[in-house]
Amino acid sequence: MKPTPVFLAFAAVLSSTLAAPAPASPPEKRANPQGVDISHYQGTVNFNTLKSNGLSFVYIKATEGTTYTDPMFSTNYDGATSAGLIRGAYHFAHPDTSSGAVQANAPSGNECYGLSASAMVSWIKDFSNTYHSSVGVYPVIYTTTDWWTSCTGNSASFASTNPLWIARYSSSIGTLPAGWSYTTFWQYADSGANPGDQDEFNGSAQGLKNLALG
Ligand SMILES: *[C@@H]1O[C@H](CO)[C@@H](O)[C@H](O)[C@H]1NC(C)=O
């Protein structure tokens, strides 16, 4: 997600062509499956290499704001599918593009897009509820604790509905935004052994598959 300094994105439920999980499988260890998130910024990605490096999933940039579609989205999605990776799509939020008046007041580079905390919470609610109405599940919210604290006033009103994908480039996860007692994904570095940002699923391989299967 490198080119954009602001930390608010929504991620679609991961999709998978895997068959439904086998019933009554023994409880699985928390393997914390590893993944990356990428966009056209990474250029051509060899998904078979990611798979053979042991990655389980890849998040692919789809859109940003209301008008931008990542030119590599389809190529990346097809490549990840062929390689047998579990994959999802993410959308970079642009709360400033919803209203001309707001946009006019929000100099680019303003970390909260010129929105007050309560306006930001309303904007996120609107996005999340609209997504829920059309897809049937709530989107994963990608953010940092710092951004969430500054720009939503550390709102606790999404924790019971939206899974969290926290970005924190450190060896530990640190304090999470209000309400969430755990994170579903952790983006722990913006570079590493594989192209893109480095991510971990907080759970077992089966848990990741279950999320992918909705
Ligand atoms: C991972 O999830 C479990 C709950 O399934 C939670 O207890 C734990 O704190 C989580 N880890 C992080 C880093 O959020």
Keywords:
6 helices, TIM Barrel, 214 residues, globular, alpha/beta, 8-stranded mixed barrel, binds 2-acetamido-2-deoxy-beta-D-glucopyranose
The CATH class, by name, is Alpha Beta
Q: Going by CATH, what is the homologous superfamily? A: Glycosidases
- Poorly predicted regions are 19-25, 99-107
**Assembly status:** single chain
| Secondary-structure element series | EEHEEHEHHEHEEEH
Give the % helix: 25-40%
The small-molecule ligands in this entry are: 2-acetamido-2-deoxy-beta-D-glucopyranose
Could you describe the 3D structure shown?
This protein has 214 residues and is α/β, with parallel strands linked by helices. The protein has a single domain (9-18, 37-212), classed as TIM Barrel (Alpha-Beta Barrel), CATH 3.20.20. Helix content is 27%, strand content 21%. It is built from six helices and nine strands, in the order ββαββαβααβαβββα. It has helices at 47-52, 73-82, 100-105, 117-135, 145-152, 205-212, and strands at 8-11, 34-38, 57-64, 68-69, 86-92, 140-143, 164-167, 185-189, 197-201. Strands 1-5-3-2-9-8-7-6 form an eight-stranded mixed barrel. Helix 5 (145-152) links the parallel strand 6 and strand 7 (164-167). The longest helix has 19 residues, at 117-135. It is globular, with a radius of gyration of 17 Å. The two termini are 25 Å apart. The relative contact order is 0.22. The chain binds 2-acetamido-2-deoxy-beta-D-glucopyranose. 2-acetamido-2-deoxy-beta-D-glucopyranose (NAG) binds at residues 173, 182-183, 202.
